[in-house]
Amino acid sequence: MDKIKIIDLYSQHLRIKSELDSAIDQVIQESQFIRGRHVREFKVNLEKYLNVPHVIPCGNGTDALQIALMALDLPKNAKVIVPTFNYVAGAEVCALLGLKPVFVEVDEGTFTVTADEIEKVITPQTKAVIVVHLYGQCADMEPILKLCQGKNLFVIEDTAQALGAEYMFPNGESKKAGTMGHIGTTSFFPTKCLGCMGDGGAIFTSDEGLANYMRQIAFHGQKKKYQYELIGINSRLDTIQAAILDVKLKYLDEYIETRNKNANFYKEAFANHSEIVTPEIQDSSTHVFHQYTVKVKNRSKLIHKLEHADVPYQVYYPSPLHLEKAFSYLGYKEGDFPISEKLCKEIISLPIHTELSEEQLNYIAKVVVE
Question: By 3-state DSSP, what share of the chain in percent is helix, strand and coil, each rounded to 5?
Answer without folding.
Answer: 40, 20, 40
